[in-house]
Backbone:
């Protein structure tokens, strides 16, 4: 299907692919990119959430279509890239998180975090970056975390996945900036989304409930994404860290 481009907005004429767009930061990002005039391609596994995103976007005249599937699947990643067309903005955002004491994390939890946050994320990024490099145009936005540089209790493995993605981000920038690509890492602290809702370990729940700050909102993160992708052609914000202020 051909993407119909909006006529107005700072991102008119651009195609933006957002992973993890069925919820949280990705959903808010997809809407904001559409409001700026980009033709957005949204993805996630939950069809009903993507349908409601599509409806919300339609209500303000935004241009958004979606393809639902599991990013952990090699076939789906390839299908998504061909569905998306000539992507100019790629927000590599999908991710999972399990906070638990290190010795209690299961193999399955560790594997899922590395499978989605690292391996699936690398794979889709390679596929998209290849096309961008061939067209000598594109902006990759990697959603990492403050955990890409600091480790807190209960987040050793999640933090390791984000450290890995910060390294990959630097490597992509080194190799592909000469092909006209911009690469921005956005590293938020705690954001108010459902990503922790499956974390039921009593120590973790207590630590989260007694923290001394309020979480960021998805819109705080969206402002950073929009700033990054709307800067002048000669400017690329390499790293934006977003820290909640202490209450
Ligand atoms: N919330 C925070 O405190 C925080 C802080 C720093 C960084 N981050 C990072 O920001 C990103 C978004 O997090 P969020 O807080 O917005 O989380 P969220 O609300 O839980 O959303 C996660 C998104 O990732 C998608 N996803 C997960 N597994 C997937 C899979 N196997 N295949 C396809 N899509 C998958 C989910 O879609 P489906 O469930 O529909 O598949 C969903 O759209 C993550 O990379 C996270 O690590 C979050």
Residues:
């Amino acid at each position: 299907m051909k993407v119909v481009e909006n006529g107005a907005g700072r991102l008119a004429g651009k195609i933006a692919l957002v992973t993890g767009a069925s919820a949280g930061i990705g959903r808010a990002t997809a809407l904001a990119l559409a409001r700026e005039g980009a033709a957005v391609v949204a993805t996630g596994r939950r069809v009903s959430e993507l349908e409601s995103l599509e409806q919300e976007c339609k209500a303000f005249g935004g241009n958004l279509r979606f393809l639902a599937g599991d990013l952990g699947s090699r076939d789906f990643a390839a299908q998504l890239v061909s569905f998306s067309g000539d992507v100019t903005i790629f927000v590599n955002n999908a991710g999972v998180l399990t906070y638990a004491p290190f010795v209690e994390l299961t193999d399955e939890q560790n594997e899922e975090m590395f499978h989605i946050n690292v391996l699936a994320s690398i794979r889709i990024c390679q596929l998209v970056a290849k096309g961008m490099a061939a067209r000598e145009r594109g902006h990759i936005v990697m959603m990492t975390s403050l955990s890409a540089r600091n480790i807190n209790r209960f987040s050793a493995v999640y933090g390791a996945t984000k450290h890995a993605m910060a390294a990959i981000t630097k490597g992509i920038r080194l190799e592909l900036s000469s092909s006209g690509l911009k690469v921005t890492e956005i590293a938020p602290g705690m954001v108010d989304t459902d990503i922790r809702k499956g974390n039921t370990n009593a120590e973790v729940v207590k630590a989260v409930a007694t923290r001394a700050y309020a979480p960021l909102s998805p819109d705080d993160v969206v402002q950073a994404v929009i700033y990054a992708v709307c800067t002048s052609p000669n400017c690329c914000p390499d790293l934006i860290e977003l820290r909640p202020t202490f209450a």
In short: The chain has one domain: 15-238. Residues 1-6 have pLDDT under 50 and may be disordered.
